[in-house]
Amino acid sequence: MKSIQESHPSIDIEVIKEALDKRGYRLDEIVGYGAFACVFKVFSYQYNQYFAAKVCYVGISMMTKNIQSYTAEINALSKLYHPAIINVFSYFNDGDYLFLILDYCSKGSLREYVKNTSKPDYSLIFSWMRQAIEGLVACHSMGITHRDIKPTNILIDQYNRIKIADFGLSLNSEHGKYISRFAGSLPFTSPEMNSCPKYDPLKADVWALGITFYYLLYGRSPYKASTETELKKQITEAQIVIPATVDKRFTIILGMMLNPNPEERSSAADILKVFNTIRVNKRAKFANVIETRKQNQRFKSQVVESQLLARKIPSGHRRNSTVIQRN
Fold first, then answer.
1. Could you say which architecture CATH assigns to the domain 110-275?
2. Residues 28 and 40: beta-carbon distance below 8 Å
3. Which amino acids does the record list as binding ATP (predicted)?
């Protein structure tokens, strides 16, 4: 991987430190960097807490792209306020640099979670998936499409909550409105983005999040391609197999999100309804288990009181364990 100086040769750390310092922030360390910006962990003296400072260089060679990305992110985040979406607290410019002060997510991204986890916590993953869908519904309800959803753009804070981040490619989109501008990372683009002149960006977001969920559940991409041409072919032909090695709830949701036909692919709002149904059913199941335990306890008490301790409890009153068979 290239160093920050190789990737962004025009970045001057000392200038950035000075710009942050005079606004009450102490630069602690570099968190990461991408095509348009570098991210630093900073400490606010005023609020006595850590934030992430996203810094874009707008020198002549990169001015147009970086200003567009910076503006798109501010426009989106200024409209969005949701627990599953990164918060912007401040933004300013200083010389050739543009700054965004954002939530600091100390546990990295979903990509880092997958790389560093040998045994996935599926209950945690289910919670993250629901949070991400809620965040995407919030975006789409405000007419905003993300257009670059992927594991590195979904962050995890200190409380294990996820935050959808990096809105630099986001766009205002009306429901039912098709666009022709291609954006995002190729492995997370939908079949129609690679085969049709125009596509629905809302449905493309759903697909990208579906691929992200696949990666989170199985620890790998659904594609097996060694070249970009081969990858595009597999995406266009929607050559995705969803292994039945995880809970059926997950495979149902993936099937809704990774339908190759965008007309039949579920919306984020419809997927959230399924999540909420599963959550309600889970509560109902838990309530039934509690009631069964109470009934069993009452039954045992009756046995004791009637001095029938030596008598075998009829099999019809025994609790049975439910075993989930996985193919």
1. Orthogonal Bundle (1.10)
2. yes
3. 54
The length of the chain in residues reads 327
Residue ranges, CATH 3.30.200.20, the chain? 7-103
To the question of whether residue 248 is assigned a binding role by annotation, the answer is no
Q: Is the pTM of this model over 0.85?
A: no
Note the pLDDT tens digit of each residue in 236-257: 998 788 888 888 889 999 999 9
Residue 102 burial class via C-beta count within 10 angstroms: exposed 0-12, middle 13-18, buried 19 and up: buried
**Are 99 and 11 contacting, i.e. CB atoms less than 8 angstroms apart?**
no
Give the pLDDT confidence of 225-236 residue by residue, as tens digits.
Answer: 899 999 999 999
Nearest-5° Cα angle at 9, 53 to 151: 50
Which residues make up the CATH 1.10.510.10 domain(s) of the chain? 110-275
DSSP string, 148-192: ---GGGEEE-TTS-EEE---TT-EE--TT--B----S-GGG--HH
Report how far residue 53's alpha carbon sits from residue 94's, in angstroms, rounded to the nearest whole number: 13
CB 249 within 8 A of CB 217: no
Mean pLDDT of the chain: 83
